[in-house]
Design a protein that fits this description.
This protein has 204 residues and is of the alpha+beta class. Helix content is 39%, strand content 20%. It is built from six helices and nine strands, in the order βααββββαβαααβββ. A hairpin with a 5-residue loop joins β4 and β5. The relative contact order is 0.20.
Length: 204
């Protein structure tokens, strides 16, 4: 069970999502030219700091209702909500992505007092870019699955959502070999660097 590794994920900068994360609403929030220029400048600062990488693994599953999802190697996920989400799937794709350490070091320095506004914009940019990285991985699999007459579910499911316990991230981190992406996991099952994410979706 060897994952696919993506050493450099090319994504289009998700500007609307970044602005939404910053609290701007198209119809409700007015932003001056000066404010927009400041935000755009900080977004531009983020770009060379982002080192977007990822890994993904396609696996067969067996659903043992109402809550158990069996994976190869004797591994399991236990979650009623995840089992319902995967009810039409017999395979899954596990995926993980990280923005790297450089962006987190800049965020921490800025939030610590160097430039709090810049830190907030860098944080929003990194969060949305990592999410876009998972979108890119899903697009990669959709294209390859087309030859088999299959596709992916439209959304994805992450550990920590609903009854899919955060502890499941330990197994996902291991199966995705995210240590090769320089991503570690804490005893409390948080990924380091912080702008790193995992998710699962179904093949149908």
């Amino acid at each position: 069970m060897t994952p696919l590794f993506f050493e450099s994920i090319p994504v289009t900068l998700p500007r609307p999502a970044i602005y939404r994360r910053l609290g701007y609403r198209k119809e409700a929030t007015r932003i001056s030219t000066g404010q927009r220029e400041e935000v755009e400048g900080y977004i531009a600062d983020a770009l060379p700091l982002l080192q977007l990488k990822g890994s993904a693994l396609r696996l067969p599953i067996e659903l043992e209702k109402p809550l158990l999802i069996s994976l190869p190697g004797g591994n399991t996920f236990a979650s009623r909500k995840l089992a319902r989400f995967l009810k039409d799937a017999r395979e899954i794709v596990l995926m993980g992505a990280t923005a790297g350490t450089a962006i987190m070091e800049a965020i921490q320095a800025d939030i610590g007092g160097r430039n709090v506004t810049r830190g907030v914009v860098l944080d929003a940019t990194a969060s949305e870019v990592v999410d876009a990285g998972l979108d890119w991985i899903m697009g990669y699999f959709r294209q390859s699955l087309r030859r088999e007459g299959k596709t992916l579910l439209n959304s994805r499911f992450s550990a920590g959502y609903g009854d899919f316990a955060l502890e499941n991230q330990q197994l996902m981190h291991r199966l995705l070999q995210m240590d090769r992406l320089n991503v570690t996991i804490t005893e409390s099952c948080l990924l380091v660097p912080e702008k790193s994410v995992t998710a699962v979706t179904g093949i149908v």
